[in-house]
Amino acid sequence: MSTVSEKLVIGFDLGGTKMAAGLIDGRLNLIDSVQTRTPTESQNNLLAGIAAMVKDLASRAPSPVAAIGFGIPSMIDQKRGRAVMSVNVPLADFDFVDYFRRELELPVFIDNDANLAALAEVRAGAAKGVSEVIMITMGTGIGGGIIVNGKVYRGSVGSAAELGHMVIDVNGPKCQGSCENYGCFETLASGTAMHRYAHEAAGQYSDSALAKAKAAGEKLDGSLLSRLALENDAAALSVFEKIGFYTGVGITSLVNIFNPEVFVVGGGLIKAGELILGPAREFLLKRGLKPNRDVVRIVPAHFGVEAGMFGAACLAFDGLEGRL
Question: Which domain holds residue 74?
Fold first, then answer.
């Protein structure tokens, strides 16, 4: 009989823009993977897309898949295996674990996607071996994961660590998706916010390269903004200054509250690196409380945008071993 370390699992990371699944072994080696756009038109389309993606990947596995771990951007009732609500995907009031156990005929385990990204970074990434860790994932929205005493902190029913919905500006803009709040962290420092800031900056800096790119019909995405910022385009730099500032606001509050040893920043936006982390660290040094601000290390995620997928695999192995 094979040990858990010899088994293969699928780690599935569901995001607001894309979803990715990886066939992963017990040493966290990636055997195969697939990625596609998230079908957000309806819950039925989303569920069908997830199932098709998993079945396709499992059919290519060199040996049977033992379990599937799902990281989903949702408020979760962990005890019931239920997705309660989601801000950026059409998934609400749904018995996720029961449905996919029947659909896929495999053991299924779920957690919040950012919780799992944090788990991956602690097991084998930028915070390996560290017991007190906070992680945020910056993409379409902002997810959060909290590690206390080396374990994922999930709260009373499993829906803790919605760090992206911490209010950092009570008079700020309406939050996105199904969130009814105003001035949430993700409203001011996510990829969605960056897109908004880019269009604003293109109008304010009419002679900038960013304004010319917009006029030419180019997509004002992170790659373009990073390139222009590194070329010292004033408009692009202003976008990252704003994202970095609000990232610093959020990080500072969390560092003051939790006193982590390591604060990991992941997700698609962190490809911009110090363009975001530099202003964020500067804000923390000015506004953070001693000794918390002086002992924490703010680092980019080791696994990058694949952190959630590897964390979901860790969840699946933990579930097989009865460690959840």
Answer: 4-119+306-320
